[in-house]
Amino acid sequence: MSTVGYEALGQVARITVERPEALNALSTAVLLDLDEAISRATREAPRAVVLTGAGGKAFVAGADVAEMAGMSRLGAAAFGALGNRVFRALEQLPMPVIAAVNGFALGGGCELALACDLRIASETAVFAQPEVGLGITPGFGGTQRLARLIGPARAKELLFTARRVDASEALAIGLVNRVVAAEDLSDEALALADRIADQAPLAVRATKAAVDLGLQKDLDTALAIETAQFASCFETEDQTSAMGAFVERRKPEPFKG
Ligand code: CO8
């Protein structure tokens, strides 16, 4: 049975890590199931995806420590490479992915949230990169994505100390976009996904691509990427229909994608 659920909810999809008995810890099996769910999202192309954890306590409490405890260097390299491949596939989904962080997001769990485009946290969410306390470094992108998101100095403090960050601090340092009451998290995350799904899907995808590809380049190259993405939206049905409706002061048609 899969440890990762996939629900098609109209124009959006929800992926849920479902291993609550181990606080949704990422074992090899969970990573492979997550990979399957990402492939399904690629095939079915929802307009936005929400990623969350099952049970009230944890988003994901990390990579599976029991599985890692006896790993050789070779085994650890393979495990790290698997996690990075799967998280990169998640990050490179063409549609926006929202992490709904419903509790502990520790180690690999924090890294999983970092691989999403946006993060909404419940008031009970707790973030940390506790790896140095276990004698290892982060292995699923934490040293890179955390530093890119909140800046190297803040990231290094969290990475060097393993200190826990509550939801309000996570908001203050830009680790999450928004904090909501625990009971509202699911609805708020789906509402945000629906709001994105109401926009022109090709334009949303092109915007995600422009931000993500551009961030890896110098500004001139990045602006050329933006121009290419901008131009790619023209002559699409949604662009001609939406702009035509504006010019002719008509109600716009729903976007087709
Ligand atoms: N791995 C495996 N099992 C876990 C994990 C985990 N990360 N987290 C929790 N569990 C299990 C517990 O063992 C326990 O199982 P059981 O009931 O069979 O004993 C069950 O989940 C419930 O957990 P607790 O009883 O501990 O619940 P508490 O409420 O007492 O504590 C905590 C909750 C604080 C979240 C605690 O469970 C904890 O500290 N968990 C570990 C957190 C952690 O250190 N995470 C980081 C792991 S390192 C990592 O993620 C590195 C990623 C990159 C790896 C790359 C490798 C190459």
UniProtKB/TrEMBL annotation:
In terms of InterPro entries, this protein maps to: ClpP/crotonase-like_dom_sf, Enoyl-CoA_hyd/isom_CS, Enoyl-CoA_hydra/iso, Enoyl-CoA_hydra_C
Pfam families the record matches: ECH_1
Question: What EC number(s) would the UniProt record show?
Answer: 4.2.1.17
Query: What keywords sit in the KW lines?
Result: Lyase
Segments forming a coiled coil: none
Provide the catalytic activity annotation: a (3S)-3-hydroxyacyl-CoA = a (2E)-enoyl-CoA + H2O; a 4-saturated-(3S)-3-hydroxyacyl-CoA = a (3E)-enoyl-CoA + H2O
Q: Does the keyword Lyase apply?
A: yes
| Gene3D superfamilies reported for this sequence | 2-enoyl-CoA Hydratase, Chain A, domain 1, Lyase 2-enoyl-coa Hydratase, Chain A, domain 2
Could you tell me the Gene Ontology terms of the biological process aspect for this record? Answer: fatty acid beta-oxidation
Citing just one GO molecular function, the answer is: enoyl-CoA hydratase activity
What family does the database annotate?
A: Belongs to the enoyl-CoA hydratase/isomerase family.
PANTHER family recorded = ENOYL-COA HYDRATASE, MITOCHONDRIAL (PTHR11941:SF54), ENOYL-COA HYDRATASE-RELATED (PTHR11941)
Q: What is this protein called?
A: enoyl-CoA hydratase
